[in-house]
Here is the input.
Amino acid sequence: MPTVLIPTPLRPHCGGQSSAEAAGATVGEVLESLTAQHPGLRQHLFNEQGKLRSFVNIYLNDDDIRYLDKEASAVTAADTLTIVPSIAGGRA
Amino acid sequence: MLNLLAEPWGVIVSHARACYPRECCGILLGTAAEGDVRTVTTAVACVNAYQGEQSDRFELDPKDQFEAQRAARRQGLEVLGFFHSHPDCDAYFSATDLANSWPWYSNLVVSVRGGEVSHARAFRANDNQTASTEEELRCPQS
Here is the structure.
């Protein structure tokens, strides 16, 4: 199964694990499977419309899925997904 | 408590000076020990990817974070948090900082006045990014 690397802020919602395996043939399916296993992750990854939150970036191996087929990007069992939180700010 | 070693602090100071009067930003790597003591062993200086006026805004490129996460895992380190500067302004955690933050991470804010680092403070956001608390900071300047 594909592996998903979990950033530290989300590990409490994933049994404290730094990575998890989740089934699926696309990025969207893998994330659905992951959040079915760990429901506490859902609110951090998806908005109320079920779309990936804008503050969440997903890498498929070395590539940002925004530059692939987004959540429809094909995934194999050997692939690794990395969840990367967006960080921004400023004094304004 | 956020404990910054001399080398990463030097990287942060140099980056903040070089980017002035724009905001700088970067990533803090290190170890998190029992008792909530976080020791920053590496500071990664990043490009401010904000598409607009950068004197009061910053944005980290997700690619830089991805690479930092990968480097941290390889070295047995954690991404402990992030740093950015406030040019000609105090080091506080603004509403913009809070709204664009994540829980758990340490957020180091560096005040730069006239091109020189004035002071720094660290903050952590709560679970739903509605409030922050100041974190004790130990670094060579304080």
Notes: Helices of chain A lie at 27-37, 42-45. Chain A touches chain B at residues 5, 7-9, 18, 55, 57, 59, 64, 82, 84-92 (CB under 8 Å). The radius of gyration of chain A is 13 Å. Chain A has one domain: 3-85.
